[in-house]
Design a protein that fits this description.
- The structure is a single chain.
- This protein is mainly alpha-helical.
- Helices cover 34% and strands 5% of the residues.
- The chain has helices at residues 13-25, 44-47, 53-62, 87-100, and strands spanning 36-37, 110-111, 119-120.
- It has a 3-stranded antiparallel sheet, with no helix packed on it.
């Protein structure tokens, strides 16, 4: 899945790619404790642990790329949080990546920007 906040946003795919390249160049992905996983989109029940139901509804509608009523009250539609097609799916994959991260250990989950739906944990 391709998702891009645009050239002016600090979380540009180019920057994510450079970060991934640096991690790869340092051979961190070849450490024995690293494993490759494919995150699944988080379920509504998993998202509702962190989100209010009305915000989840607005985020789902915004996935089409259009600002639904009430989007701005949640900070959506600003330069920092633009509304773009796929924003809900992308967000649910990000939450899924965090879900894969074992908070009780020193493991860290990262997404490979070249394989947008793939992650290492």
């Amino acid at each position: 899945m391709e998702f891009d906040y645009g050239p002016g946003h600090p979380l540009r795919n180019e920057r994510l790619g450079l970060t991934y390249d640096l991690i790869s160049a340092c051979e961190l992905l070849s450490l024995p404790s690293i494993r490759y996983v494919e995150p699944e989109p988080a379920t509504d029940d998993e998202l509702l642990v962190f989100l209010k139901p009305d915000y989840l509804k607005v985020l789902k509608v915004a996935d089409a790329g259009d600002a639904p009523p009430g989007a701005f009250q949640y900070g959506l539609g600003t330069p920092d949080n633009p509304i773009l097609p796929g924003i809900f799916r992308w967000s649910s994959l990000d939450v899924s990546g965090v879900k894969l991260w074992d908070l009780g250990s020193s493991r860290l989950g990262i997404r490979n920007p070249e394989l947008s739906d793939k992650a290492y944990a």
